[in-house]
From TrEMBL:
Name the UniProt record assigns to this protein: ABC transporter ATP-binding protein
Keyword terms of this UniProt record: ATP-binding, Cell membrane, Ion transport, Iron, Iron transport, Membrane, Nucleotide-binding, Transport
InterPro entries: AAA+_ATPase, ABC_SmlMolc_Importer, ABC_transporter-like_ATP-bd, ABC_transporter-like_CS, ABC_transpr_FbpC, P-loop_NTPase
Database matches in CDD domains: ABC_Carb_Solutes_like
Single Gene Ontology MF annotation: ATP binding
Family matches, as PROSITE patterns: ABC_TRANSPORTER_1 (PS00211), ABC_TRANSPORTER_2 (PS50893)
All copies of domain ABC transporter, residue ranges: 4-239
Family as reported in the entry's similarity comment: Belongs to the ABC transporter superfamily.
SUPFAM superfamilies cross-referenced by the UniProt entry: P-loop containing nucleoside triphosphate hydrolases
Amino acid sequence: MAQLILNHLTKDFGSGRPAVADVSLTLRRQAFLALLGPSGCGKTTVLRMIAGFEQPTDGSIFYGERRLSDAERALPPEKRNMAMVFQSYALWPHMTVAENVGYPLKVRGISGAPWQKLVGDALALVKLTDFAERRPSALSGGQRQRVALARCLVTQPDVVLLDEPLANLDQHLRKAMEETFRAFHERSGATMVYVTHDQAEAMSLATDVAVMSEGRLLQVAPPAEIYARPEGRVVGGLIGRGSILRLPLAETGERQLGWPVFREALGWRDANGATGGPLADVLVRPEHVHRGTDGILMRVMSCAFEGERFSLDLALGDGQRLKAYSSVAIAEGQAVPFVIASGWRL
Ligand SMILES: Nc1ncnc2c1ncn2[C@@H]1O[C@H](COP(=O)(O)OP(=O)(O)OP(=O)(O)O)[C@@H](O)[C@H]1O
């Protein structure tokens, strides 16, 4: 398996601002890359350029040594050995499950016993062997999506492109399908690029997460790395359920901050009001905010039961808000001392 390389990739539809602007990215072999970002940031356009449905206006795409496209030339989609799974499944209603899955093989002239074997293997991988003779209309949403996945893997593609494939499924099915994707990735060894705006999904599935905003690539890193060390407000705000505080902080070059730094910064603000000092953005995760007698008083604005814990919305002295968790309910309106054990300077 070769590496998929995006090289200063740009797509301008002529609307004044490029949909994708100067995106460079080398996917490691057998990567499972999640492309994450707000609606309209250019994720699907990147995917469509990789697939060959759109041609870049600048930059290039390589698969190993092979140039797939640039502004002058583009290899047609069917010559790329890639497969794409869409949100809408795009199954043929008049064909059975097996016929749907085997359709790409038929197009390539494969029939008879080899056809049976490949379709059988693909259906087994997505656990749909018993459904081979059904029509798509007699399947659930999750089963339909598994048919679409089987159809995509039957041709043994080098690269699998998935455009929000779980968006139409309920929470329970999404979890089950995540397992199917993971198994498929392990078995096939294909490079996978997965577009989503669900960061939890991206974090649990991917080997690497790429965050885009307004056509640009902001950061690419493994999930744990991007969670612990996000770069800038947009990435910090997208990944996890953190709060971003603006605090007066000295420029020390230190990005991982502990309670002494927070105590000083928050104390300073309480004593001096809301202005003054060089302000910095700091990301605080709810799991790092604890009740503690040596903490700073914060007002509990809301306390919501979430099953395994309570989720708190806290107000600092200057009105900034902070999320926290608690194992017990705390009365709304009460001022309680909290400690911020750790935070990350964005
Ligand atoms: N064929 C097109 N012609 C003109 N503009 C387009 C075309 N396709 C996409 N765009 C624009 O390019 C930008 C990026 O769109 P894209 O679909 O790539 O975003 P996205 O991140 O996938 O969004 P979403 O999460 O909503 O699907 C948007 O502003 C969109 O309106």
